[in-house]
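Consider the record:
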Amino acid sequence: MLQLYRGIVPPIVTVGMVQSVNFPIYEHYKAYYHKKCKYDYYTSTFLGGATSGSIISIFTIPFSFVKVIFVLLLLVILVLTCLKQVQQQISTTNNVFLTAKNMYNLYGIRIFYRGYPCSYICETVGRGVYLYTYEYIKHYFYEKSVDPNDKSVWVKVIGINLLTYS
């Protein structure tokens, strides 16, 4: 049963780190676009999310690329092992960090930014849409709240969960 949760810690940690950087950048630029540029609230929200996505893409895109290569290497090992063609474990697939190190040693820093323009567009627009929807859901619950003091972290948690699973 524990095998179902194998490898769950790194994604939780990395997503937490990304979001802990993403939200302050987003809040800063949302306020900037709203106050300095005089955009309406939801336009500022989208632009703040797009800007934060643009900034953090420098880190998220290479890491996502390494994770995809890591999973593909594991899949290749699984297929080859199932076909009884290879019975040994390849050392590059012990963890994501060894995969990244081996990729860097073989190809240099540029390998982590392969396909960056397409991923950059996805990261920028995706973060803009994600945070726009988050703000919309959050405001929906604020307005539907019976208790005016219920504007707590729980409203944000509900908003994020509804957005994540919708």
Q: What stands out?
A: Confidence is low (pLDDT under 50) at residues 84-92. Residues 10-69+111-164 form one domain. The two ends are 27 Å apart (CA to CA).
